[in-house]
Amino acid sequence: MLVRVAVSDPLPLFRRGVVAVLSEAGFATETPDDLLAWALDGERRIVLLTLHSSSDWALLSALGAARTGLVVVATLEAPSTALYVRAVLAGAAATMRRDATPEDIREVFAAAASGRSLLPTEVVRELSGTPGARTPADPAPPPEREIDWLRQLAGGDSVRAVADRAGYSERMMFRLLRDLYTRLGTANRTEALIHAQGKGWL
């Protein structure tokens, strides 16, 4: 049976590379604009979704709830056990590092196409250690400099002010903060600050 694969990633070069690797491996691979509509249309399908922003995490949840038989492979830029667990709990059947080799990509998709899943051992241990739990593992505290960024934001400073103090451009600081929010298992600044407050970091 033909298995169709959709690749969704914000970087065109990465998308083209994964499409080339999977096409060579015999998968019918494409990059649809409307991933959710594509996932609901027709035969057996696998989606590779890079979790880069809060909207990607929302899309993962929507795909996970969309239909049975759909397999989502989540790609993570800065993977940690907590993020892997979060991805699986949100609906991913398998996970993969964004810097995976072509061999790794082929292996993950071959497993997905045959109804198996490849996950890091520590993720399986974490999932098995929390039976019935539907929340990700508690992430480790971020470095002190990142906690300091959260303190500044909680104190009312703008991202530009935080960036100036840290020596980054405003754009880079937005990226660094987005990565921090993701590692904390939160979707945005407000959730991150509530989480940090609850941990006593602020």
TrEMBL record:
Domain HTH luxR-type: 139-196
Transmembrane segments: none
Domain of life (superkingdom): Bacteria
Xref: InterPro entries: Sig_transdc_resp-reg_C-effctor, Tscrpt_reg_LuxR_C, WalR-like
Any GO MF annotation of the entry: DNA binding
UniProt keywords, alphabetically: DNA-binding
GO terms of biological process kind: regulation of DNA-templated transcription
Coiled coil ranges: none
Protein name (Swiss-Prot/TrEMBL): DNA-binding NarL/FixJ family response regulator
Organism: Actinoplanes digitatis
